[in-house]
Protein backbone atom coordinates (compact mmCIF):
# COMPACT_ATOMS: atom_id res chain seq x y z
CA UNK A 1 0.00 0.00 0.00
CA UNK A 2 2.89 2.33 0.81
CA UNK A 3 4.46 1.51 -2.51
CA UNK A 4 1.22 2.33 -4.31
CA UNK A 5 0.98 5.65 -2.49
CA UNK A 6 4.58 6.39 -3.24
CA UNK A 7 4.04 5.53 -6.92
CA UNK A 8 0.94 7.73 -6.99
CA UNK A 9 2.85 10.58 -5.34
CA UNK A 10 5.70 10.25 -7.82
CA UNK A 11 3.23 10.19 -10.71
CA UNK A 12 1.49 13.27 -9.35
CA UNK A 13 4.83 15.01 -8.83
CA UNK A 14 5.83 14.22 -12.45
CA UNK A 15 2.49 15.54 -13.74
CA UNK A 16 2.84 18.67 -11.61
CA UNK A 17 6.38 19.27 -12.91
CA UNK A 18 5.11 18.73 -16.45
CA UNK A 19 2.24 21.19 -15.93
CA UNK A 20 4.61 23.61 -14.22
CA UNK A 21 6.93 23.42 -17.26
CA UNK A 22 3.97 24.06 -19.60
CA UNK A 23 2.83 27.04 -17.50
CA UNK A 24 6.36 28.40 -17.46
CA UNK A 25 6.56 28.05 -21.26
CA UNK A 26 3.18 29.77 -21.68
CA UNK A 27 4.27 32.50 -19.28
CA UNK A 28 7.47 33.08 -21.29
CA UNK A 29 5.49 33.22 -24.55
CA UNK A 30 3.08 35.74 -23.02
CA UNK A 31 6.01 37.79 -21.69
CA UNK A 32 7.65 37.86 -25.15
CA UNK A 33 4.36 38.86 -26.76
CA UNK A 34 3.91 41.57 -24.13
CA UNK A 35 7.41 42.91 -24.82
CA UNK A 36 6.68 42.99 -28.57
CA UNK A 37 3.41 44.82 -27.96
CA UNK A 38 5.10 47.27 -25.59
CA UNK A 39 7.75 48.06 -28.20
CA UNK A 40 5.10 48.42 -30.90
CA UNK A 41 3.05 50.66 -28.60
CA UNK A 42 6.09 52.81 -27.89
CA UNK A 43 6.85 53.15 -31.61
CA UNK A 44 3.23 54.07 -32.34
CA UNK A 45 3.28 56.73 -29.61
CA UNK A 46 6.41 58.25 -31.14
CA UNK A 47 4.79 58.21 -34.57
CA UNK A 48 1.63 59.86 -33.21
CA UNK A 49 3.75 62.65 -31.71
CA UNK A 50 5.50 63.20 -35.05
CA UNK A 51 2.19 63.18 -36.94
CA UNK A 52 0.58 65.57 -34.42
CA UNK A 53 3.47 67.99 -34.87
CA UNK A 54 3.20 67.73 -38.63
CA UNK A 55 -0.57 68.28 -38.54
CA UNK A 56 -0.16 71.32 -36.30
CA UNK A 57 2.46 72.80 -38.65
CA UNK A 58 0.18 72.23 -41.65
CA UNK A 59 -2.80 73.79 -39.88
CA UNK A 60 -0.72 76.80 -38.85
CA UNK A 61 0.60 77.15 -42.40
CA UNK A 62 -2.93 77.01 -43.78
CA UNK A 63 -4.20 79.51 -41.18
CA UNK A 64 -1.33 81.83 -42.05
CA UNK A 65 -3.01 82.50 -45.41
CA UNK A 66 -6.43 83.39 -43.93
CA UNK A 67 -8.03 86.83 -43.95
CA UNK A 68 -11.24 87.67 -42.08
CA UNK A 69 -13.42 90.21 -43.83
CA UNK A 70 -16.09 92.02 -41.83
CA UNK A 71 -18.84 94.39 -42.88
CA UNK A 72 -19.54 92.96 -46.31
CA UNK A 73 -23.17 91.97 -46.85
CA UNK A 74 -23.92 89.08 -49.17
CA UNK A 75 -27.44 87.71 -48.96
CA UNK A 76 -26.60 84.40 -50.60
CA UNK A 77 -25.47 81.18 -48.95
CA UNK A 78 -24.24 79.57 -52.16
CA UNK A 79 -20.51 78.95 -51.69
CA UNK A 80 -19.58 79.85 -55.26
CA UNK A 81 -21.55 83.10 -55.19
CA UNK A 82 -20.00 84.12 -51.87
CA UNK A 83 -16.53 83.41 -53.20
CA UNK A 84 -17.21 85.38 -56.36
CA UNK A 85 -18.68 88.38 -54.47
CA UNK A 86 -15.83 88.55 -51.95
CA UNK A 87 -13.22 88.24 -54.68
CA UNK A 88 -14.97 91.00 -56.68
CA UNK A 89 -15.00 93.19 -53.56
CA UNK A 90 -11.26 92.69 -53.04
CA UNK A 91 -10.50 93.39 -56.70
CA UNK A 92 -12.82 96.41 -57.02
CA UNK A 93 -12.38 98.12 -53.65
CA UNK A 94 -8.74 97.30 -52.94
CA UNK A 95 -7.54 97.06 -56.54
CA UNK A 96 -5.74 93.79 -55.76
CA UNK A 97 -5.89 90.58 -57.77
CA UNK A 98 -5.66 87.54 -55.51
CA UNK A 99 -6.13 83.82 -55.80
CA UNK A 100 -8.40 82.31 -53.19
CA UNK A 101 -8.83 78.70 -52.21
CA UNK A 102 -12.14 79.16 -50.46
CA UNK A 103 -14.38 81.76 -48.86
CA UNK A 104 -16.59 80.74 -45.95
CA UNK A 105 -19.41 82.72 -44.39
CA UNK A 106 -18.77 82.91 -40.64
CA UNK A 107 -21.55 85.25 -39.61
CA UNK A 108 -24.07 87.71 -40.99
CA UNK A 109 -21.38 90.07 -42.28
CA UNK A 110 -18.19 88.12 -41.59
CA UNK A 111 -16.27 85.95 -44.05
CA UNK A 112 -13.13 83.86 -43.88
CA UNK A 113 -11.08 84.04 -47.05
CA UNK A 114 -8.39 81.41 -47.53
CA UNK A 115 -5.71 82.68 -49.87
CA UNK A 116 -3.53 80.44 -51.97
CA UNK A 117 -0.38 82.16 -50.75
CA UNK A 118 0.91 84.33 -47.94
CA UNK A 119 1.94 86.88 -50.58
CA UNK A 120 -1.72 87.38 -51.57
CA UNK A 121 -2.64 87.84 -47.93
CA UNK A 122 0.12 90.42 -47.53
CA UNK A 123 -1.18 92.36 -50.54
CA UNK A 124 -4.69 92.51 -49.07
CA UNK A 125 -3.46 93.48 -45.60
CA UNK A 126 -1.24 96.20 -47.03
CA UNK A 127 -4.12 97.71 -49.02
CA UNK A 128 -6.42 97.53 -45.98
CA UNK A 129 -3.88 99.34 -43.81
CA UNK A 130 -3.50 102.07 -46.40
CA UNK A 131 -7.30 102.56 -46.39
CA UNK A 132 -7.38 103.15 -42.63
UniProtKB/TrEMBL annotation:
Residues 2-61 form a coiled coil. The lineage of its organism: Eukaryota, Metazoa, Ecdysozoa, Arthropoda, Hexapoda. This is Uncharacterized protein. Keywords: Coiled coil.
